[in-house]
Design brief:
The complex is a heterodimer.
Chain A lengths: L5 H37 L3 H6 L14 H8 L3 H30 L6 H10 L7 H10 L7 H4 L6 H12 L3 H9 L4 H12 L1 H17 L2 H6 L8 H21 L16 H37 L1
Chain B lengths: L6 H23 L10 E2 L10 E2 L3 H8 L1 H20 L2 H12 L3 H12 L6 H12 L4 H9 L15 H26 L3 H9 L4 H25 L8 H6 L5 H4 L2 H11 L3 H30 L5
Helix pairs in contact in B: 2-14, 3-8, 4-8, 5-8, 8-10, 10-14, 13-14
The chains are: A mainly alpha, B mainly alpha.
Chain lengths: ~300, ~300
């Protein structure tokens, strides 16, 4: 291409570097600060914070775990945490085992193999829609039932594609020798294919686990039972209450400002922040471990495209 | 080995797969029978065939109800358009990241910008509320500098609904979407850059003439692919950020189906709207696929 003016180059390049650092630095703050703000607020003394919100901007004031104590003493909170943990654990294991085994079968020369595979992939491109799905789940008895959280997601077409692609590139010789020893398909899957597919199955486990933890719509429309409420829905209820108060304040004579919270150790604001933190924390904790897996996952998905 | 395999083995495999096939039928195909409901005036208390058969009346309602359906379709398309316009942001982010010399800084920014993708819309709503509501941080800062300022909240501001929701989606997804482009950039032959350097090209020039053309194919494939999801804005975000003040602009097609179907229990009409959406989406998918074949000679599905 055309030659550049050499004298200008270094100055231009330096400005360029500085500009990149400024833009990316701002993006970093935009993505990080909301997490950080909620975190320090949840550790702050609720009343000090509500008297002067600006005190809590960079670090917690009046460091305390009171908010967390109050949150876990809230009715239904411990049970919601348990439900969320259970659905994540059971849902993830179930999805990895079922999708893994089914994907393995699809690589084998069974009857109607093509039809079965196509039928599976087709589910990615059409959907019966929300209402038919809802009505069918109710007919299956998956209403106010823990299984509605974990069963419908056991097989996912996208996961099947990823696992199948991975299994197909494993050396066939290992399986063949096991077969000569008289091992059945289940044994071969459990002893050979499953361990060899660990990289892809770990990726899928990460996606399934995050999906399960974040899931709330199934809870929202199909579970009215308090004992089966998840953490996400607890937070949702809390936020809706806060929102409707704000909405009314705006429509009325703009009462606005801070409502008085008399003698309690916590405020609605500090409770909201703390519950948000409780719901976010598991994601933050596993996030560093997930990273190498999800990059792999999205790349494998991209190969297809 | 394959040819030697005799029927019993294949049969055993098929039998092993059978429960999974049954599962897929039960959870993805059986629900389709619900489409029949759109042909009736369905009341939840009665068995389906005891309800009055109304033919395509529910589909005709979509047109008669144009005041609503037109509005939600408009909202859906506006959100889609804004998503297309902002789809260059992940490309820019990926290019900026690839230009960073410090690996540590690159890693740090990439890690934090990807993080929002992994949290639910409920958490994002909580973030937004705690930052932007009347007693949220932003208003606190404004009133600290200007005590006379009237607190305002983007959450209940009807004028910026589209912009605000698009910004939120961008915040959630841009870092994640950038990963694909980073991979595309990593795949560019480094000799191209070396050759350009020898020719005296600066960084800006290399970005324009090597990096951009390098990511363009990926960008266009994803762009074409997104056409098929034009009508599927998703539900979570709109359900969570819904309030009476912004309702008229926040209601997208998916939300409308939810509202008439599950809030008002008008199953028949909701299903008719849902079916229409499914068919238009399939049509868009095939058109997109046809377009992809024309443009790059390979299909996307």
């Amino acid at each position: 291409m055309a030659a550049t003016v050499y004298g200008k180059k270094s100055i231009g390049e330096n400005t360029f570097d500085v500009l990149i650092y400024i833009i990316l630095g701002l993006l970093f703050l935009m993505c990080m600060y909301p997490f950080y703000y909620i975190f320090i607020y949840s550790l702050s003394d609720a009343h000090t914070a509500s008297r002067n919100n600006l005190a809590v901007m960079l670090y917690p004031v009046g460091l305390t775990l009171n908010n967390y104590k109050e949150v876990f003493a809230m009715e239904g909170m411990a049970s919601a945490a348990l439900v969320s943990l259970l659905r994540t654990a059971i849902g993830t294991v179930g999805t990895v085992v079922c999708s893994g085994f089914f994907a393995y079968l699809v690589t084998k020369p069974m009857y109607f193999r093509k039809t079965i595979y196509r039928m599976t992939i087709a589910t990615m491109y059409f959907s019966s829609g929300l209402v038919p799905w809802y009505l069918t789940m109710r007919k299956y008895g998956l209403y106010n039932n823990f299984f509605v959280y974990v069963v419908p997601s056991l097989i996912s077409a996208y996961f099947i594609i990823l696992i199948k692609t991975f299994i197909e590139q494993l050396p066939a010789s290992l399986e063949e020798s096991a077969m000569l020893d008289g091992a059945g398909y289940i044994t071969i899957f459990a002893r050979i294919v499953f361990p060899l597919s660990k990289p892809i199955l770990a990726t899928i486990a990460v996606f399934a686990a995050v999906g399960q933890w974040n899931s709330w719509f199934d809870n929202y429309i199909l579970v009215q039972n308090d004992e089966l409420t998840t953490l996400q829905l607890k937070l949702y209820d809390l936020m809706r209450t806060a929102m409707s108060i704000a909405e009314k304040a705006n429509m009325g004579t703009s009462a606005g400002g801070a409502l008085s919270h008399l003698e309690e150790a916590v405020t609605p604001m500090s409770i909201r922040m703390t519950v948000t933190m409780v719901v976010t924390l598991p994601i933050l904790l596993v996030y560093p471990f997930m990273q190498r897996y999800f990059v792999k996952g999205i790349m494998m998905g991209a190969i297809k495209g | 080995m394959r040819t030697k395999k005799i029927d019993p083995a294949r049969l055993r495999l098929t039998l092993l797969a059978l429960p999974f096939v049954a599962f897929i039928i039960a959870f993805s195909y059986v629900p389709v029978h619900g489409w029949l409901y759109s042909l009736f005036d369905y009341r939840p208390a009665l068995p389906l065939f005891d309800n009055e058969f109304v033919g395509l009346a529910n589909f005709k309602t979509i047109i008669d109800d144009m005041r609503n359906t037109g509005r939600v379709l408009g909202n859906t398309l506006i959100f889609f358009g804004l998503d297309i316009l902002t789809s260059v942001v992940p490309v820019i982010l990926a290019i900026l990241l690839s230009e960073v010399r410090s690996r540590k800084f690159k890693k740090l920014v990439q890690t934090t910008t990807t993080l929002p993708y992994f949290i639910s819309w409920i958490i994002i709503f909580s973030f937004a509320f705690n930052l932007f509501s009347f007693d949220g941080l932003v208003n606190q800062i404004i009133t600290a500098f200007n005590p006379d300022a009237v607190p305002s909240s983007v959450l209940i501001n009807k004028d910026v609904v589209y912009q605000f929701q698009t910004a939120l989606r961008l915040w959630k997804n841009a870092g994640w979407s950038a990963i694909v482009y980073l991979a595309a950039i990593a795949g560019i032959d480094s000799e191209l850059y070396d050759a350009a350097s020898v020719d005296g090209a600066g960084r800006m020039r290399k970005i324009l003439h090597i990096t951009l053309p390098g990511v363009a194919p990926t960008f266009f494939v994803l762009l074409i692919l997104s056409i098929s999801s034009m009508l599927s804005s998703g539900l979570d975000q709109y359900l969570v950020f819904y309030n009476s003040i912004v309702a008229s602009k926040l209601e997208v097609l998916d939300y409308y189906v939810y509202k008439i179907g599950l809030m008002r229990s008008d199953y028949s009409y909701a299903i008719a709207v849902g079916i229409s959406k499914t068919f238009i989406s399939l049509l868009l998918l095939f058109s997109a696929n046809w377009l992809a074949k024309k443009v790059r000679g390979a299909s996307i599905i």
